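ok trying this again, last paste got cut off
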Amino acid sequence: MALETTSLAGKRIVLTGGTTGIGRATLKLLSEAGARVLTFGRHQEALDEAIALTAAHEKAIGIVADAATKEGVDSVFAAADAELGSVDMLVTCAALGAQPIHEMDDADWRYVIHTNLIGTLASARAAVKRMEKQGGGHLLFVGSISTEIKAEGESVYAATKAGIHAFAETLRKEVAAKNIKVSVIQPGSVDTDMQECSDAEKAEAVAQAEMLHAEEIAEAIRFVLTRGAASDVVNLRIEPLVQKTS
């Protein structure tokens, strides 16, 4: 029996946080697979650089928007309606790192919560409403193993990712009858701008199998999105052989 898979060719995908790190690697990979991708970021220069990576394929669409604001999320999905016609898949990568809550200004830790957690929930809500009308879809949230390891210094960040994880697994039960899949990927340490160590330290960590390349998480995202219609990868945890936590 041939294994059923889902082709990404022509799929209409909204990708949050596609300008850096895991999101940027995912943008390139999904475009290579023939998906029609709309992504966004807060800074035009980073957005232009990310979109340029897709020029040889089905070129992605990019807009400047902030996942932390209602106006930002609304503008993204208005653009998805106008440019894509609707949304078949949502992949959420937008996230900010944080310090311990008592070491952050009040406005700063609240902004992280709004970006990482509220922005994800708002994007999911907008996507579900569109997927309901068309008879199905797939939501994929990038979480973190920070919810499991609870490393010192990650209290705010871990709280946002734990919220996403609980939200996703509960939402899955609420929308399964609508033919909407819900998945979470939990990466370990990844060589991205979010890491506080230097580029040389990150390169050494990758060489020592203490840190992953962003492309490896993008590959995991593609794997989850391409499973057959009857299967849903609920939670996929992927980490380096020796997890680096600082």
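PB: full thing came through this time. The first strand starts at residue 12 and ends at 16.
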